Amino acid sequence: MSLQIFDILQLEIMKDAKVLSGSKLITETVVKWVSAIEMPVENFVRKNEFVLTTAIGCGHSLEEFEKFVKDVINSEASALAVALGRYIYEIPKEVIEMAEKNNFIIIELPWEVRFSSVIEAVMVKLNHVSNEESRRSEKVQQELLNLILKEADLACISTYLNEHLGFPVIITDQTGTIHAQSKEIPNLLENWKGYVVKGIIPAMKSVSLSPHDPMIQKIQKIKIEEHCIVQLPVIQVSGNTQNYLFVILASDIILDSFLTQNTVNVLEHAVTTIALWFSRKNAVEETKIKLHASFINELINGEYNSWEQANSRAEIIGYNLKLPYLCIIGAPENLKELFKKRKLTVEAYQQWADSMIHYIKEEIFYAAQALNKEVMITYHEEKLLVFLEHSLDSKNESITNFLDLVDRRMRNLLPNVIISWGIGNYNEGITGFKESYQNAKIALNIGRNKKGIGHRVMYENTRIDRLLLNLFQNPDMKEIIMSTIEPLVEYNIQRNLDLIETISTYNYYQGNVSQTARALFLHRQSLLYRLRKIEELTGLSLVDPDDLFLLDLSIKTWKMGC
Fold it and tell me: Which residue in 81, 254, 360, 426 has the fewest CB atoms around it within 10 Å?
């Protein structure tokens, strides 16, 4: 319910008023305030204000009066009522034409009409409207609180909001993951995850829609395809935005026409109710996540002395330890680089990264579910720790199938995210979890050092690499290796010429100069110069098998340990 210019014109005090411009707008133009004002306008007129004036400051000047009316129009007033007879005798046609062009209402009043009487009558109407809105607002607030007290789910709340707002609503957590929706919005929902990944939803950059209303200041508008999405943060007791309410409008709807006082009241009560619902849910979820993470950390740290002790704890949180598990560690390698490309504020990184980890964990869970495997997942030290049910009779086939499925799902949802995987062995006994975790950690580090990021490495395929790693940890061997390799490292730093890559490629092609030159995109003479420089710096001969073996061993061992 709202007060229109039409309602004001029906007042007894306004019976002699004449509408000179904007007559077609009187039934749709809302009035929220009323005042009497003379020149200058400056910032004394508010939006949706019904303005009364005698034009006393215009001094019978058309230019001054025209400027005065223009200032009132620019202030987004609802209408201007001018009392004629003392300072102005008629409204110039130039002014009426300007008002018509700007879709603005000008009303002519007889001089005898008292402004105080008009203001009193309008205020009575405004107070009535305000009281009605308060009653409706209290009714909505009470009904929403009753839903909370009845422990209704979020879908019931979203359906209720749909009925009162007249448009579909979506409720998400802070990462943009949908928790409830009032009804299907096919095109939008199919692409929702993609919009979240791209940083379009939720909108991070704050753009205020109103400098006056504190509630409207929190609203952000997102234009997507044929939709205009109204985003409202759901702020928890801590003061942090934890969730979002989205209202899905058609793209041709004017936001100001949607955001009536009644709508704003409904939205205000809605975010309070949603905050209460999530506060209750989050308390349970956070406890559950902490219990799961704590249990997995205890497993990998070897804190359980018996199966009975571990099983009793696992059953409480819904894990089945009677199945065989092996550990897989996944390290997302390029989240910060991807975030920089989004050109969002630095403060938004943690929320965006959390959403990425959430979706990766979700894809891992779905992949395990598709293969009918039990899985335990947590995020620890910026790595994903996954304990996957292992088929003892299929060797590594089930692991390969699982990671292949995860990669396929990831390519569809997060095609640019690079993940390195380390895969441990299955180890029996309660200490097997710790051993498998240590295996996966070693495999991950070896894979990163040897192959770079984005590869998957199985612990059982790293025997030579582990041998080299143990060599590097021996003080005497480390001294021999470093004395061999350091001159090449220093030369690379000083001259920006990677001789280590040169000799590694040379060894790979078993000393074939032509193949090595082609692989490095070098002229044959340039390659020979580099090989002589390697001999000069290391004091080793590339034609001596023992020297060549020492150099190759030193490079491989150094790469494992660096």
Answer: 254
What pLDDT, on the 0 to 100 scale, is given for residue 379?
92
**Distance (Å, rounded) from C-alpha 111 to C-alpha 552?**
104
List the CATH code of the domain at 151-282. 3.30.450.40
Instruction: Yes or no: say if 426 and 432 are a contact pair by the CB < 8 Å rule.
Output: yes
Output phi, psi for 438, to 5 deg.
-60, -40
Residue 279 pLDDT > 70: yes
Between 325 and 226, name the one with better pLDDT: 325
User: 301-461 maps to which CATH number?
Assistant: 3.30.70.270
Helix (H) / strand (E) element for 221: namely: strand 220-224
In tens, the pLDDT along 33-54 reads 999 999 888 888 998 999 999 9
Alpha helices in 385-523 (DSSP H): 397-413, 432-451, 463-473, 475-495, 499-508, 513-519
Which three-class secondary structure state does DSSP give residue 546?
Answer: helix
Architecture of domain 3-126: 3-Layer(aba) Sandwich (3.40)
How is residue 27 written in tokens?
């039934």
What is the DSSP code string of 352-363? HHHHHHHHHHHH
Q: In residues, how long is the chain? A: 562
- Look at residues 475, 255, 226, 428 and name the one whose alpha carbon lies nearest to residue 326: 428
Farthest-apart Cα atoms in the chain, separation: 117
Predicted structure pTM score = 0.58
**Quick check: 216 pLDDT over 80?**
no
358/360 Cα distance (integer angstroms): 6
What's the rounded Cα separation, in Å, for the pair 126 and 342? 47
Separation of alpha carbons 47 and 366, rounded Å: 52
